[in-house]
Design goal:
two-stranded antiparallel ribbon; 165 residues; globular; mainly alpha; 2 strands
Protein backbone atom coordinates (compact mmCIF):
# COMPACT_ATOMS: atom_id res chain seq x y z
CA UNK A 1 0.00 0.00 0.00
CA UNK A 2 1.19 3.49 -0.74
CA UNK A 3 1.21 6.25 1.79
CA UNK A 4 -0.62 9.50 1.20
CA UNK A 5 1.06 12.82 1.97
CA UNK A 6 -0.50 16.00 3.24
CA UNK A 7 0.22 17.81 -0.05
CA UNK A 8 -1.83 15.37 -2.13
CA UNK A 9 -5.55 15.97 -2.50
CA UNK A 10 -7.06 12.91 -4.15
CA UNK A 11 -10.74 12.70 -4.94
CA UNK A 12 -13.12 11.24 -2.37
CA UNK A 13 -13.61 8.25 -4.67
CA UNK A 14 -9.87 7.59 -4.84
CA UNK A 15 -9.45 7.94 -1.08
CA UNK A 16 -12.42 5.61 -0.42
CA UNK A 17 -10.95 3.10 -2.88
CA UNK A 18 -7.59 3.19 -1.04
CA UNK A 19 -9.36 2.62 2.28
CA UNK A 20 -11.37 -0.29 0.89
CA UNK A 21 -8.20 -1.83 -0.58
CA UNK A 22 -6.37 -1.51 2.75
CA UNK A 23 -9.23 -3.09 4.70
CA UNK A 24 -9.60 -5.89 2.14
CA UNK A 25 -5.87 -6.61 2.35
CA UNK A 26 -6.14 -7.06 6.12
CA UNK A 27 -9.10 -9.45 6.11
CA UNK A 28 -6.90 -12.51 6.61
CA UNK A 29 -3.68 -10.88 7.76
CA UNK A 30 -2.30 -9.67 11.03
CA UNK A 31 -3.37 -6.13 11.91
CA UNK A 32 -0.43 -3.87 12.76
CA UNK A 33 -0.44 -0.50 14.48
CA UNK A 34 0.99 1.10 11.34
CA UNK A 35 -1.80 -0.29 9.14
CA UNK A 36 -4.44 0.92 11.61
CA UNK A 37 -2.80 4.35 11.71
CA UNK A 38 -2.62 4.53 7.91
CA UNK A 39 -6.27 3.58 7.41
CA UNK A 40 -7.47 5.88 10.18
CA UNK A 41 -5.48 8.75 8.62
CA UNK A 42 -7.06 8.06 5.23
CA UNK A 43 -10.55 7.99 6.78
CA UNK A 44 -9.91 11.31 8.52
CA UNK A 45 -8.66 12.80 5.22
CA UNK A 46 -11.83 11.57 3.50
CA UNK A 47 -14.02 13.07 6.22
CA UNK A 48 -12.17 16.40 6.04
CA UNK A 49 -12.59 16.44 2.26
CA UNK A 50 -16.30 15.66 2.60
CA UNK A 51 -16.69 18.37 5.26
CA UNK A 52 -15.52 20.98 2.76
CA UNK A 53 -17.36 19.66 -0.29
CA UNK A 54 -20.61 17.91 0.66
CA UNK A 55 -21.66 18.33 4.29
CA UNK A 56 -23.78 21.03 5.91
CA UNK A 57 -22.76 20.03 9.43
CA UNK A 58 -19.08 19.10 9.72
CA UNK A 59 -18.23 15.78 11.32
CA UNK A 60 -15.23 14.25 13.06
CA UNK A 61 -13.98 10.71 13.35
CA UNK A 62 -13.37 9.66 16.94
CA UNK A 63 -11.21 6.70 17.98
CA UNK A 64 -12.69 5.02 21.07
CA UNK A 65 -11.76 2.05 23.24
CA UNK A 66 -14.37 -0.70 23.55
CA UNK A 67 -14.86 -4.23 24.72
CA UNK A 68 -17.84 -4.68 22.39
CA UNK A 69 -17.18 -6.15 18.96
CA UNK A 70 -19.10 -4.52 16.14
CA UNK A 71 -20.66 -7.09 13.82
CA UNK A 72 -23.09 -5.03 11.74
CA UNK A 73 -22.71 -2.84 8.70
CA UNK A 74 -25.76 -0.64 8.14
CA UNK A 75 -26.87 1.77 5.46
CA UNK A 76 -29.93 3.99 5.36
CA UNK A 77 -29.88 4.05 1.56
CA UNK A 78 -28.87 0.45 0.84
CA UNK A 79 -30.61 -1.83 3.37
CA UNK A 80 -29.24 -4.97 1.65
CA UNK A 81 -25.62 -3.96 2.20
CA UNK A 82 -23.24 -6.86 2.82
CA UNK A 83 -19.55 -7.69 2.49
CA UNK A 84 -19.96 -8.49 -1.22
CA UNK A 85 -21.42 -5.13 -2.23
CA UNK A 86 -19.83 -2.61 0.15
CA UNK A 87 -17.13 -1.50 -2.29
CA UNK A 88 -19.58 -0.94 -5.12
CA UNK A 89 -21.95 1.06 -2.93
CA UNK A 90 -19.28 3.28 -1.36
CA UNK A 91 -17.45 3.97 -4.63
CA UNK A 92 -20.62 4.64 -6.64
CA UNK A 93 -21.90 7.02 -3.94
CA UNK A 94 -18.68 9.07 -4.01
CA UNK A 95 -18.63 9.02 -7.82
CA UNK A 96 -22.21 10.33 -7.84
CA UNK A 97 -21.27 13.04 -5.34
CA UNK A 98 -18.32 14.10 -7.49
CA UNK A 99 -20.55 14.18 -10.57
CA UNK A 100 -23.04 16.31 -8.58
CA UNK A 101 -25.89 13.86 -9.25
CA UNK A 102 -27.61 14.65 -5.93
CA UNK A 103 -29.21 18.04 -6.40
CA UNK A 104 -30.56 18.80 -2.93
CA UNK A 105 -27.90 19.68 -0.35
CA UNK A 106 -29.58 17.54 2.31
CA UNK A 107 -29.38 14.52 0.00
CA UNK A 108 -25.69 15.21 -0.71
CA UNK A 109 -24.98 15.42 3.01
CA UNK A 110 -26.95 12.33 3.90
CA UNK A 111 -25.56 10.20 1.06
CA UNK A 112 -22.03 11.24 1.94
CA UNK A 113 -22.50 10.51 5.65
CA UNK A 114 -24.09 7.16 4.84
CA UNK A 115 -21.18 6.11 2.59
CA UNK A 116 -18.63 7.21 5.21
CA UNK A 117 -20.53 5.35 7.93
CA UNK A 118 -20.67 2.16 5.82
CA UNK A 119 -16.92 2.48 5.22
CA UNK A 120 -16.24 2.99 8.94
CA UNK A 121 -18.53 0.09 9.90
CA UNK A 122 -16.64 -2.13 7.44
CA UNK A 123 -13.31 -1.00 8.91
CA UNK A 124 -14.60 -1.56 12.45
CA UNK A 125 -15.86 -5.07 11.65
CA UNK A 126 -12.91 -6.32 9.59
CA UNK A 127 -9.95 -4.58 11.24
CA UNK A 128 -10.66 -2.74 14.46
CA UNK A 129 -12.71 -5.55 15.99
CA UNK A 130 -9.31 -7.21 16.55
CA UNK A 131 -7.80 -4.21 18.33
CA UNK A 132 -10.25 -3.26 21.09
CA UNK A 133 -10.94 0.10 19.46
CA UNK A 134 -13.46 1.43 16.99
CA UNK A 135 -14.11 4.57 14.99
CA UNK A 136 -17.25 6.62 15.39
CA UNK A 137 -18.64 9.65 13.56
CA UNK A 138 -19.82 12.63 15.52
CA UNK A 139 -20.72 16.21 14.78
CA UNK A 140 -17.82 18.60 15.24
CA UNK A 141 -17.88 20.40 18.56
CA UNK A 142 -19.13 23.94 18.39
CA UNK A 143 -15.83 25.33 19.68
CA UNK A 144 -14.13 23.71 16.69
CA UNK A 145 -16.52 25.72 14.53
CA UNK A 146 -15.34 28.95 16.23
CA UNK A 147 -18.14 29.16 18.77
CA UNK A 148 -17.75 29.81 22.46
CA UNK A 149 -19.78 26.78 23.56
CA UNK A 150 -18.55 23.19 23.37
CA UNK A 151 -21.27 20.66 22.71
CA UNK A 152 -21.05 17.13 21.32
CA UNK A 153 -24.14 15.77 19.62
CA UNK A 154 -24.96 12.92 17.33
CA UNK A 155 -25.64 13.58 13.70
CA UNK A 156 -29.22 13.11 12.67
CA UNK A 157 -30.26 12.08 9.23
CA UNK A 158 -33.47 13.12 7.57
CA UNK A 159 -35.39 10.49 9.51
CA UNK A 160 -33.98 11.75 12.83
CA UNK A 161 -32.14 8.55 13.74
CA UNK A 162 -28.99 8.86 15.80
CA UNK A 163 -25.83 8.18 13.89
CA UNK A 164 -24.12 5.07 15.26
CA UNK A 165 -20.53 4.08 14.66
Amino acid sequence: MTSITATEHPSATLTATKILDWVDSLRNRKVTDSSVDEITTLIRALVNDCNTKYLDLPINVVHKATNIIQTEIKSWYYPGINLANISGYVISTFEDLEKDLYHAQIEKSNRCIDAIQVLIDYYNVVVLSRTGYYLKLQEKKLDELQSSRSVETSIHLVNGDDFHG
